[in-house]
Amino acid sequence: MKELDRLRIEINKIDEEMAKLFVKRMKVVEGIVEYKQSTGMEVLDTAREKVVIEENSKRVTDEKLKKYYIEFLKGNMEISKNFQNSILGLDKVVGYQGIPGSFSYLALKTKYKDEPLNSYQNFEDVFVALKNREIEVGVLPIENSYTGDITDNFDLMKKYDAYIIDIIELKIDHNLLGIKGSKLSDIKEVYSHIQGFKQSQTFLKGRGYKEIPYYNTAISAKYISEKKDITKGAIGSAQTARIYKLDILAGNINTHQDNTTRFMVIGNKLIVTKDHNRIMAAFSTYNKAGDLSNVLGKFSKYGINILSIKSRPLKDSPWEYIFFVELEGNYETLKSTIEAIEKESKYFEVIGSYEK
Q1: Start and end residues for every CATH 3.40.190.10 domain found in the chain
Q2: Cβ-contact 156, 123 below 8 angstroms
């Protein structure tokens, strides 16, 4: 027993030294990241990882321990990468509605390239995940240049007290997709999110297709790829076709060629920086004659440009409305003016700040 106690004491001393070396190593990693950032070098170098593991493993000559040391090195590398990601702000978990290939997925990938992703079936699921801290940010559509607002997401913004922290614009290119070997003349049924049908009306008109609404365009594409039925088609992007190994039977079927969707990046708190030049505010009035025009007049009086205004019914107050206005300007610059306008409103809150 004394021998076991001695060995345990020795292990404790080694662990103590390893803890000091771990902290020292991570401090060096931090310095490397900062240097690479300042010089414009790539921060994460996967090619070097293989070389480091290969060279370091040579230092262990005991063959029965070598494979365990390699696992130890790989663990160190993974911890190091996670630490680097945290320094770079890449450790955010991003939530979106749909599956890989959906337009929300394609939009978020323009901004969040390496972050872990959580997908959800419904828009509301993303808001719930944000509130429960399952994700740091969510990416959701709010407006299409042809079909207009996605009103559900404005309602959910208020229901879950979420804030817009960024806006992503994505050009939407719709295509009619089918399984390998199918032809345009084979198609009898088309699956898509309702927005896909609305945005492709001219192409679909008079073709006699049975239009079947589905959760989103990517799930539609995945569904027909699994069914392997030449009579089933889906509306989706070229990227979605590649993901689910489908053929493009008819390309660029948008009714309008400038079809663009705006996606909002939502978070749990308002973030304002000096570069932001857009504000999203929500307000309601006392529902008296002249109240709405009075508030809108204040924006004009103080020289604030209203870029858009939308109204949504207040769920618990029949015939009363909440208005969403997108304003031009920086929140910090306009803060005192906005506070003056707030006094004229029954309810007023800035729910977004971002850069166009």
Answers
A1: 175-253
A2: yes
Virtual torsion, Cα 200, 246, 193, 262, nearest 10 deg: -70
Contact assessment for residue 159 and residue 259, using Cβ atoms and an 8 Å cutoff? no
Helix H or strand E encompassing 348? strand 347-354
- Is the pLDDT reported for residue 345 higher than 90? no
HEC sequence for 225-264:
HHHCCCCEEEEECHHHHHHCCCEEEECCCCCCCCCEEEEE
Backbone torsions φ then ψ of 206, nearest 5 degrees? 80, 0
Angle between helices 331-342 and 291-301 (to 10 degrees): 150
- Residue 130 and residue 97: Cα distance in Å, rounded? 12
Rounded Cα gap, residues 304 and 345, in angstroms: 16
In which region does residue 93 sit, left (phi positive, over 0), alpha (psi from -120 to 50) or beta (all else)?
beta
> Which pLDDT tens digit goes with each residue over 105-151?
999 999 988 788 999 989 999 999 999 988 989 999 999 887 888 88
CA distance 340 to 285: 14
0.85 cut: is pTM over it? no
Q: Which residues contact residue 261 at a Cβ distance below 8 angstroms, ignoring those fewer than 6 apart?
A: 103, 107, 141, 143, 144, 145, 169, 170, 172
Smallest CA-to-CA distance from 166 within 309, 281, 266 is with 266
Q: Is the pLDDT score of 90 beyond 60? A: no
In CATH, which superfamily holds the domain spanning 2-88?
Chorismate mutase (1.20.59.10)
For Cα atoms 345, 350, 352, give the angle at the middle one, nearest 5 degrees: 150
Residue type, 10: E
Protein fold of 270-356:
Alpha-Beta Plaits (3.30.70)
Classify domain 175-253 by CATH architecture: 3-Layer(aba) Sandwich (3.40)
pLDDT per residue as tens digits for the range 143-195: 988 788 888 899 999 999 999 999 999 999 999 999 999 999 999 999 999 98
Rounded CA separation 311/253 (Å): 31
